[in-house]
From TrEMBL:
Alphabetical list of PROSITE patterns matching this protein: 2FE2S_FER_1 (PS00197), 2FE2S_FER_2 (PS51085)
TM region(s), chain numbering: none
Annotated protein name in UniProt: 2Fe-2S iron-sulfur cluster binding domain-containing protein
Claim: Oxidoreductase is one of the keywords in the record: yes
InterPro entries: 2Fe-2S-bd, 2Fe-2S-bd_dom_sf, 2Fe-2S_ferredoxin-like_sf, 2Fe-2S_ferredoxin-type, 2Fe2S_fd_BS, Aldehyde_Oxdr_Iron-Sulfur, Beta-grasp_dom_sf
Record flagged with keyword Iron: yes
2Fe-2S ferredoxin-type domain mapped to chain residues: 19-95
GO molecular function (one): 2 iron, 2 sulfur cluster binding
Pfam families, per the entry: Fer2 (PF00111), Fer2_2 (PF01799)
Amino acid sequence: METLAPISIDRAPSVPTPQPVRLTINGTEHTLMLAPWTSLLDALREHLHLTGTKKGCDHGQCGACTVLVDGVRINSCLTLAVMKEGASITTIEGLAENGELHPVQQAFIDHDAYQCGYCTPGQICSAVGMISEGKVRTTADIRELMSGNICRCGAYTNIVDAIQEVMHVTEKP
Ligand code: FES
Ligand code: FES
């Protein structure tokens, strides 16, 4: 009977070593040593301790992990950090400027647009990205374009009210 040759150690699959990834986070450049499979979300939370960005589903379904990459909103749980080499990332911690809250942050406070608050950083980053996309004309547009961000606490109405105020959208669906 044929016997299998032993696997030689030097032919065994190797584990990729961490590699440097350069990211500008909230205006500060960082070089992180990351395993190639590290998500942008884990890079932010585990390596930079920026825990404002939340991990909800970790599968691209809830929007809790939304951040802005070069001004565009993305789900950071579905994005490998190495794919964003050289990019500029804005998280909820980076939205306020000179001690002033971003208008969307202020509107969320004014409209009590959160309950447990878990989804709030993602909701706010998503709203900021949506506003710069320039597609909103009606309240229905806000609901549609924010539909990737799930709030389990039923604060949808107040979230839409807050965004509507910042965007000066008055038309009702
Ligand atoms: S944690 Fe990324 S979409 Fe839910
Ligand atoms: S405020 Fe609780 S999930 Fe949105």
